[in-house]
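Hi Y.,

Following your request, here is the sequence exactly as I used it, all 399 residues.
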Amino acid sequence: MTGADYLLPFRTKLRSMRTESFGADPAGARMERIRRSPHFVDGAFQNPVGARTRPSGSTVEFAKIYFHKEQRARRTPTGTVPVHATILADLATPPASGLRLTWMGHSSVLAEIDGRRILFDPVWGERCSPFPFAGPKRLHPAPLPLAALGSVDVVVISHDHYDHLDLPTIRALAGTDTVFAVPLGVGAHLERWGVPPNRMRELDWNETATVAGISLTATPARHFCGRGLRNQQHTLWASWAVTGPEHRIYHSGDTGYFPGFRDIGAEHGPFDATMIQIGAYSEYWPDIHMTPAEGMRAHLDLQGGRPHGVLLPIHWGTFNLAPHAWAEPGEWTRDAGEEAGQTVAFPRPGEPFEPAGKLPTAAWWRGVSQPIAHPWRRPRGAESVSETSRGDMDLAGER
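Below is the corresponding structure, written out as tokens. Let me know if you'd prefer a different format.
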């Protein structure tokens, strides 16, 4: 290193150390478009309602919980996660109803809708991390190799966090003919990784792209973005409303609960199926991820305030990203569905199902999970959540 190197701005030095996994910062015409967005204020994208994006509370207390040996054991399965074995054969014929969903794990879902194939937040990598040697590792394998999935009409990305935007997966898909629908600013990452600009549809909230007869609308979410320590909030996060000639579906991406779900449902719903984030919640970040109870509330809001369609829980079971027990999101969502009278599908990773057909409903996780407490359950005869204990209120996200 020469003496002149010490004169380089610190930011430039940091940028030179970034690996390709970090992606690229928006610049040029893309950055100009970002600055014109009504949701870009004071140099950063803003949430539809206020949200704390950094963990609250004591870092020391959180570390004690997260790294405690017994607590860590609760956050992983006790055996092999039962990945669906016949996915290739099941996908070989088109869905009889025109709509079929296949949860690949975490937030990755293949949606076959009205003759088209849409892949949401595909993550086939071993770790959701910029580094191959560190970061949360998969708790079960991908249900099938990405190359075996076959042609995909559209890849939809909700935001640029590593557990939703995966470099090796995008690089593999960049070599196909698929179109990418992404929130505003995320296209900078994809371009760096080899996706041609003419195969991207980069959308602000409430903008719509039509691909192969399917309408894809980027809808608001309450979250944040970033792939490095220095997060400028220059890439947008989104949920997605997808409309075909016969069916409507919704993918939440990552989001905290907010009243805007009602507006999304009024504009684009009701939906035949919703894919709702119900995992990786914590009292340390209540504004940016939903508990299962909040996820159920969001689904009902999207459906006009009543049980309708099918809810597919996502963002759980594949990576260890929060202090809660590994199988707790499944158990809690099951209870929330029964309480609300809402139909919920619980497929194993890789198990296709048609929302209009027979649904997978077995609690498959119980065979590979430690016993799960149910502190969110109301005492028999309780009239309101205020009658539960303070601990129950924290776990249920009622703040």
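The two ends are 53 Å apart (CA to CA).

Thanks again,
Q.
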